[in-house]
Each structure stands twice: as C-alpha cells, then as structure tokens.
Amino acid sequence: MAKRKLSKQQQRRIASQQKNKIKDDQLQNNKSPIDESSTQTARVVSHHGRQLFAETEDLEIIKCKIRQNLGDIACGDHVLVQQTQEKTQLQAGDTQNVVVAIKQRTNLLLKTGFAGATKPVAANIGQILIVTAIRPKPNPYLIDRYLTAAENLPAKALLVINKIDLIDSATQQIAEDLTSLYQSIGYRVISTSIKQNIGIDELSEALSNTTSILVGLSGVGKSSIVKAILPKEEIKIGETSEASGEGKHTTTVSALYHLKDSGIIIDSPGVRDFTPINKSQDEITHGFIDVRQFNGACKFSNCSHQNEPGCAMKQAVSDGRLNEQRFNNYLRLLKEFNEKE
Ligand SMILES: Nc1nc2c(ncn2[C@@H]2O[C@H](COP(=O)(O)OP(=O)(O)OP(=O)(O)O)[C@@H](O)[C@H]2O)c(=O)[nH]1
Ligand SMILES: [Mg+2]
Ligand SMILES: [Zn+2]
Fold first, then answer.
1. pLDDT at position 14, please?
2. 276 belongs to a structural domain
3. Residue to probe by mutation, ligand 1, list 224, 246, 249, most atoms within 8 Å of CB
4. Is the dihedral of CA 137, 139, 140, 146 positive or negative?
5. What is the SS3 assignment for 238-287?
6. Which atom of ligand 1 is nearest to the CA of 192?
7. Within this chain, do residues 129 and 91 fall inside the same structural domain, yes or no?
8. Which of these, 4, 103, 109, 147, is most buried using a 10 Å CB contact count?
9. Where a domain ends, among 213, 243, 267?
10. Overall number of domains in the chain
C-alpha cells in the first residue's frame, strides 16, 4: 500500500492542489448531480474488480466500492468518493465508501486485452519507465511499442536495463547496443542491479515530482526496483524460470506508492506482449521520435516507405542517419495496424 509518511508541508500542498483541481475539473461520467459536500477526492492506489483502494487527501487508505457504469477506472485516477449508509448491514451507522465519479484525466495508458478489448493500465502518468533486463532477454520491438505509447500519451519515457550483475560475454554487447541506440535517439537509459545496488540512486532521482509507471515483461524486476527504493513497503517479488528467465506474473494489479520527494511510482503487472492502442498511422509515426523527423520529406506524399523512389526514410537509413532496426520496427507496427484496419 502507499506510504503515508509525507511531511506536513507536502500534505498541505497535495491537499490544496487537489482542492483547486476539483473546482476546475469537469467530472467525467457524471450522470446524476453529485452533492460535492458529502464527497471527498481520493487517488486510486489499486483496483481489484468491483472494489478499489484509494488514498484520501489526509493520506488515509480507504476501501471503496464503485458505482455502476462509471467506465474505465485505473490506478492513478483521481476520484470522488461518497460515504453512504450501508443498508444491508444490521448495525446502524455503518458506512461504506463508493466511488461516484472519475475526475478528468491528463491521460490513460491502455493496452490491448483479450479479443482486441482495451484494458486500462494506469491514469495521469507523467513518465513511463520501460524496464528491461539481461534475463529475460530484451525485446527491442516491445521497447519501441512502449515508446510509441509514451509519445502519444504524452509522457516522458526512460529505459531501465536491470540485472546488470548477470552480464556475461554473451550479453555484454546486447546491453551496450541497447544503451547506445536509445541514448542516440534522445532517451535516458539507466542501468541497474538490485542484487548489487547499482543505479538505484540515479533512478530514484529521476522519479521526483511526477507520477511514473514501471512497465515491461514479467520477471524483469519491476517490483524489485520499487522494493529497493521503498524497502519498508510490503511488495511481492516473484521468481523467474531457470530455463527461460521468464517471470511468473507475480504482480497482478497496478499499485501506487509515494516516494520521499513528491514522486509517485506505479508498479504494474508484467506483460507477455504489449500492443499500443493507435488510432491512426500518424500516431504511429509520432511515436517514433527519430523516424518522424523525416515524415513529409518523401517524394510521394502517400509514400509507404517500402519500395517507392525518393523515400526520405529509406535514404536516411542508408546514410546512417536513421537506425535500421528502429525503422523496421516502425514499418512492422504500421503493417500490423493496417492489417487490423
Ligand atoms: N540477478 C538479479 N536478479 C534480480 C534483479 N532484480 C530482480 N531480480 C530477480 O528477478 C525476479 C523477478 O523479480 P520481480 O521484481 O518479481 O519482477 P517483476 O518485473 O515485478 O515481475 P512481474 O510482477 O511478474 O511482472 C526475482 O527473482 C528477483 O529477485 C537484479 O538486479 N539482479
Ligand atoms: Mg512485479
Ligand atoms: Zn517514404
């Protein structure tokens, strides 16, 4: 659960920011008028089916039910909670907390679930930490898909290469190539080892004053990173399969934690795969910050960047101004998008 020990000054600041927000924000899904005097604002710290835990302005964690038909609700959402009399309870005076509205979000990270359905991962995200590891092996296409999601949210993105204590002659090059590729594009890359306490301070500093979410394959060490930064929190750490290095999907729901210096970190369940929800080809292009600078420079305005003459992107790849792997991943995501349309 979220850490409650914030300084009095931080508590006052958060409370006043939230009070101002409630005046300014339009409430989403506000189907019937809500008497705001009987409600309080809270932030969702974890969400389990029809129930969730939320943190109030007094930094108290409360268990809430969710009013029907509110739509997607996610860890990180700011919500309005109403205290109602529990009619089914025999004891008079018992109350229950009900989420009656979701406040307007700055963004909502979604992923594709079963049968193409969208699933909310977390809301009001300032920064996405894409966590990779020496084991399980990094998947650059997955990294690039997460980056497109970050660019389109929009949210800052940062790459973490964890478990560097496991580097050997076979994996050294993989780690170096990942670092130099993403740094050359303009993303920050932080190498960490929980086992050897490497990079944790650098990572903690990068998390201040924003809401960050850790995403990536199961078993890369997302929860271990949160535990290393917040040793007092009770966080479940999983095992990885000896043979494949794959994780066992230990974290089952996203959960939000407070950091010392006004930062918030959300640990999310590991994925086998991640497909961003792109609405158009333009969004995919926007998601590749290195590719998008050549957009519009091709000879044909409808260039598919495959075989047409005068393709500025293909030219940039052959001149070494655009990384070939990134360009191929861009074309692959475009192709998958067009096949679905
Ligand atoms: N050698 C080594 N092992 C690590 C490191 N960080 C985490 N691990 C191990 O990796 C395994 C998986 O760690 P978790 O933190 O549960 O991974 P996760 O990404 O949260 O996994 P899910 O919750 O399934 O998504 C555990 O056995 C950790 O002890 C590290 O820096 N070095
Ligand atoms: Mg985990
Ligand atoms: Zn082109």
1. 53
2. no
3. 224
4. negative
5. CCECCCCCCECCCCCCCEEEECCCCCEEEECCCECCCCCCCCCHHHHHHH
6. 31
7. no
8. 109
9. 267
10. 3
Q: Which residue has the higher pLDDT, 9 or 122?
A: 122
**The last residue of a domain, from among 50, 68, 103:** 103
Pick the ligand that lies closest to the CA of residue 248.
1
Which pTM does this prediction carry?
0.89
227 pLDDT higher than 90? yes
What pLDDT, in 10s, does the model give residues 14-35? 555 554 444 444 444 444 566 6
What is d(CA 266, CA 226) in angstroms, rounded to the nearest whole number? 9
- Cα Dmax for the chain: 78
Residue 72, domain extent? 8-103
Q: Which two tokens stand for residue 80?
A: 């309005």
Nearest atom, ligand 1, residue 247 CA? 24
Structure-block tokens of residue 331: 């074309």
Backbone conformation region of residue 213, classed left if phi is above 0, alpha if psi is from -120 to 50, else beta: beta
Asked whether residue 274 is domain-assigned, the answer is no
Is residue 116, in this structure, part of any structural domain at all?
yes
